[in-house]
Amino acid sequence: LQNETVGDPPRGADIGNPDSLWHVVTGAGKWKFLPKTAVILDVAYSIYDKDNGVLTGTDEPAYQDSTALRTYAGMAGLLTPSVTATLKVGYGRADYHGDEDFGGVIAKADIEWRATTQTRLNLGYERGFLDSVAANFYVDDQFYAVFEQTIASRWQLTLEPGIRFRHYEGYRRQFDPDDM
Fold first, then answer.
1. How far apart are CA 151 and CA 134, in angstroms?
2. What is the pTM of this model?
3. pLDDT tens sequence across 151-161
4. Over residues 134-153, mean pLDDT
5. Cα-Cα-Cα-Cα dihedral of 3, 4, 5, 7, to 10°?
6. How many angstroms separate the CA atoms of 29 and 37, rounded?
7. Distance (Å, whole) CA 120 – CA 146
8. pLDDT, tens digit (0-9, with 9 covering 90-100), for 83-122
9. How many CB atoms are closer than 10 A to CB 135?
């Protein structure tokens, strides 16, 4: 179980009064039922308290406060001595207090091949959502690869190509950055 609170820096002289606060409580569980296989459960609950101006010509907030819940269940384990796989599927829900909300499937699938003790390759897919400055939230569908190579036991070369399909929801067209 973990709790974290993060504040955005204020725009002005009042350092002790952040413009927004993000509170996150997370929990994770793992049950190993075979020597190299486990069932996993991840849960995160967040509250995002925003104070970032109003929409031009209204008294409506530019950004909506939100609460979000993300739950995952899945499995992780060895397929062979050099190949591991992780699959997590779950449900995410975010409430934007009177504006467009998110509710849907979130997932992560990852396969890792350790060619040597100094070389590894990951291939994966992840679907998730996050709060956005340009809208209430965005949904990401990301395909990625990660190649890591240790060189001379001192340096590490990492390449992370990927492609991300991002979809914004709850776009606030009337927002004027000067109102912040």
1. 41
2. 0.76
3. 998 999 999 99
4. 91
5. -170
6. 13
7. 8
8. 999 999 999 999 886 678 889 999 999 999 999 999 999 9
9. 19
- HSE-up of 84 (CA within 13 Å, CB side)? 12
CA 126 to each of CA 70, 160, 168, 176: distance values in angstroms, whole numbers, following the listed order:
14, 14, 17, 33
Model confidence band, residue 52 (pLDDT cutoffs 50, 70, 90) = low
Q: What is the DSSP string of 80-133?
A: ETTEEEEEEEEEEEEE-SSS--EEEEEEEEEEEEEEETTEEEEEEEEEEEEE-S
% of the chain surpassing 70 pLDDT: 72
Return the residue matching tokens 């039922």.
Answer: 33
- Give 179's DSSP letter: G
Q: Which amino acid is at 133?
A: V
Q: In whole angstroms, how large is the CA radius of gyration of the chain?
A: 20
Gap between the Cα atoms of 175 and 61, Å rounded: 9
Residue identified by tokens 């190299």 is 36
